[in-house]
Amino acid sequence: xxxxxxxxxxxxxxxxxxxxxxxxxxxxxxxxxxxxxxxxxxxxxxxxxxxxxxxxxxxxxxxxxxxxxxxxxxxxxxxxxxxxxxxxxxxxxxxxxxxxxxxxxxxxxxxxxxxxxxxxxxxxxxxxxxxxxxxxxxxxx
Length: 141
What we know:
The chain is mainly alpha-helical. The protein is built from six helices and no strands. It has helices at 4-13, 32-42, 47-56, 74-86, 89-102, 109-139. Helix 1 packs parallel to helix 6. 4% of the residues are buried.
């Protein structure tokens, strides 16, 4: 029998979303005059974008912006995250797993199935929240 604690930890430890790997930034020192000239030529465009366009011409790849959060209802998200944090769900599951492992909670096949189902549902909620939040940050406005 696989303990529910082991099952939950294994599922929760799985990587949900792969992190994008970006190359390290490149630094360029300019004199005050050079920078002022470039900013004037950029005509309000971000300086980095303007320099990339000047250097790479038509081959420039548009960068994704990470400005405004695409989360539509931050208040609702805060309530959900707060409710999950206050629910002591993980502590309760841990206590159940400990009781099963010590033998103080008799486990029938039905009880084991229900505990494993609860672990899978919690893991799915975690994965969905992380996917939504990470996806929201990656999508950009």
